[in-house]
Design a protein that fits this description.
The protein has about 230 residues and is of the alpha+beta class. It contains 6 helices and 11 strands.
Length: about 230
């Protein structure tokens, strides 16, 4: 882990600790920079992590105002709910068993900084502004996302069709990676945490008055509209 990443993550987790002291304030985690092209651009060997609080949990039935955002974008994701704590040395099978439920999700981000400002980006939570979670459903055996087809639309126009595992990786392995990132900082993936596994669509600008929808075979669907 390079210096900027280590410093940024440590600073972010310090802020996250303060923000989650109140009961019910902790939501969980997001996988950050899961796109290989972005990892290469930043000199990263893998994805990173940022904390999520309940303050950014948004009800998809309500439009989200983009008025304070400079470069908003929408990301189709898979959300998983953790049933028991995950340690960095847990087996893949044990981590798979920790996934209590999953659902489609949408993250709204604001690319308000240059990628050259990596330390600040990490400190501030990697562009996160809001998350919308779909209805939780039962997890398939082994928490296998392969074969779950993802269809993403913006304003009724197809953005992409992808396989969920191809887009996110194997969910238990992704969680193990996050656990290894967090452990040196004294953090765990805890029972009750929600983790969003990283974007599955190409860069998609958030457009006022157009619905962004994510449908995942076997998991259901979720949508979000934005206003100016």
């Amino acid at each position: 882990m390079n210096g900027a990443v280590a410093r940024g993550l440590a600073a972010h987790l310090n802020v996250f600790d303060g923000a989650t002291r109140a009961a019910g304030a902790r939501l969980g985690w997001k996988v950050a920079f899961n796109v290989p092209m972005v990892q290469e651009r930043l000199g990263l060997s893998g994805s990173l992590v940022a904390g999520l609080t309940a303050a950014t949990l948004h009800d998809g039935a309500r439009p989200y105002s983009l008025s304070r955002l400079s470069r908003p974008a929408l990301e189709a994701e898979v959300a998983v709910w953790i049933g028991h704590d995950v340690s960095p040395d847990d087996s893949t099978e044990l981590v798979a068993a920790s996934i209590a439920a999953w659902a489609p999700a949408i993250e709204l981000v604001d690319f308000n900084r240059s990628l050259d400002e990596l330390e600040l980006i990490l400190t501030e939570g990697v562009f996160h502004r809001a998350v919308v979670l779909g209805k939780r459903v039962e997890v398939s055996e082994g928490a296998e996302l392969k074969g779950h087809e993802v269809h993403v639309e913006l304003g009724g126009v197809t953005v992409c069709d992808v396989d969920a595992r191809e887009a996110t990786g194997h969910a238990p392995e992704v969680l193990s990676h996050l656990a290894r990132l967090l452990a040196p900082h004294g953090h765990l993936l805890k029972a009750g945490d929600v983790v969003i596994l990283g974007t599955m669509n190409p860069f998609t600008v958030a457009v006022p008055d157009s619905a962004f929808s994510v449908s995942i075979g076997g998991l259901g669907s979720v949508s979000l509209s934005c206003t100016s």
